[in-house]
Amino acid sequence: MLKILAIMGSPRKGKNNEVLLDNMLQGIQDVSQLIEIEKIYAADVGAVPCSACDACTKRLGCIKNDSINDIFEKYNSADIIILTSPIYFNSISAQLKALIDRNQAIWSSKYALKKSLINRDKKRFGYVICTAGAVDQPFGLSAVVPIMDLFFKSINTEYIGNLFVTNLDEVPVYLNEEKLKEARTAGKKLMEEYNASF
Ligand SMILES: Cc1cc2nc3c(=O)[nH]c(=O)nc-3n(C[C@H](O)[C@H](O)[C@H](O)COP(=O)(O)O)c2cc1C
Hints:
The chain has 7 helices and 5 strands.
């Protein structure tokens, strides 16, 4: 069964990011029902920021006492990973960034310990949903792509695409049927691309 891991980077449940995500997941399910979807809320995971303690260069995994090692395993076993984030001060949410930075333990597993926590041969597709309150700004979303790109590289996942939606302070996304349709179409396309990639 195909596994989809969706990570909600907004601390607000049921708002712009989650509505888009749910529509995208609907589009995926319109193509295939043989999928298992797991949604994680970065705010509920409560990942503490990486403190650069360096322990992960000496011992496999992260020594911090939260669920991050279980999340590494979720990345490993997923076939499609969807990240979502609101734009906060032209970057991603702190909740999601804390989670991403903890992937330093994955980096160490590969390059310091030479025993990768991630199966590097498995095919994984990655996708990003990101929302902004303002109308398109110069640099408004430009920080997002390089952050997500490195995240996906760290978990040996092919970064397939983005759904960026702006101007949401004016009209929330649930009132914008066109954007909801776009999200469903993006889900359908992602699933079709994934199926065609074998
Ligand atoms: C702390 C904070 C910082 C924000 N910074 C920006 C920003 O720099 N640019 C922007 O366009 N919107 C900004 N916004 C608006 C959010 O990106 C926007 O409302 C987003 O759609 C919220 O997603 P959500 O409804 O899923 O929580 C900010 C909102 C908050 C709470």
